[in-house]
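> forwarded from #structure-qc
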């Protein structure tokens, strides 16, 4: 039996030229509005709750931390988008036991054992901050540059380089269709770090748009992902919440 070979041609296309002449400030302004406008650009506090999926030791087996919580008190401004600021706390549990805690009270860093020394504290936060650059990207001290368009999870995106007031840079991918922020990437001591955002939702009555899934990569390899199942916006937070082990 003879078989005829059939050639199948697949068209490979670049991202569409939609809004080809759109400037980076216009794109970022649309991203701000899509994320929640003034409420998103200048939040006071945020509590996120859900679970974390971590891959440690370079393997593929997941370790689930549940509950996984993050409290955040936001600063009023940000010259350096890659340093710890405001206040933040992260709690991770497994089988009812604390796996780790990490907190920053605006000056000092703590873990579940108490105060963390200065150099070690800096290392704790070195890979955690960078997304905040997009909130302040329209401030006069920041500069923006539009790079070639791309895709994130099959969605067409604009790519904007944001340079903060001290020269730090981060790349943001913003969806063509609804202007959601789908990816951020920046250099860290651990390597090139990317976060991909998806599964967005809002609480009733909120303009705030919350990513329900955040995937974190270092040098192209997934390190962990967080599933945020609920959030609370602008609730009061006591300063003592950000001091651990005392």
């Amino acid at each position: 039996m003879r078989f005829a070979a059939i050639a199948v041609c697949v068209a490979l296309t670049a991202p569409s030229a939609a809004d080809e002449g759109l400037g980076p400030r216009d794109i970022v302004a649309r991203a701000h509005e899509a994320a929640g406008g003034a409420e998103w650009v200048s939040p006071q506090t945020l509590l996120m709750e859900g679970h974390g999926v971590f891959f440690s030791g370079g393997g593929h087996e997941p370790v689930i931390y549940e509950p996984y919580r993050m409290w955040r008190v936001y600063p009023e401004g940000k010259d350096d988008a890659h340093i710890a600021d405001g206040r933040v706390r992260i709690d991770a549990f497994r089988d009812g036991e604390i796996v780790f805690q990490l907190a920053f009270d605006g000056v000092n860093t703590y873990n579940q054992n108490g105060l963390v020394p200065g150099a070690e504290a800096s290392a704790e936060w070195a890979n955690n901050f960078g997304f905040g650059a997009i909130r302040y990207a329209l401030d006069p001290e920041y500069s923006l540059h539009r790079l070639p368009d791309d895709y994130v999870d099959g969605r067409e995106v604009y790519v904007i380089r944001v340079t903060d007031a001290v020269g730090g840079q981060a790349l943001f991918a913003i969806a063509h269709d609804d202007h959601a922020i789908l990816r951020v990437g920046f250099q860290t001591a651990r390597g090139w770090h990317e976060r991909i955002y998806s599964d967005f939702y809002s609480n009733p009555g909120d303009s705030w748009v919350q990513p329900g899934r955040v995937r974190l990569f270092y040098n192209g390899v997934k390190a962990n992902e967080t599933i945020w199942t609920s959030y609370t916006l602008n609730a009061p937070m006591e300063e003592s919440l950000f001091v651990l082990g005392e």
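QC bot note: The longest strand covers residues 221-233. The first helix runs from residue 24 to 35.
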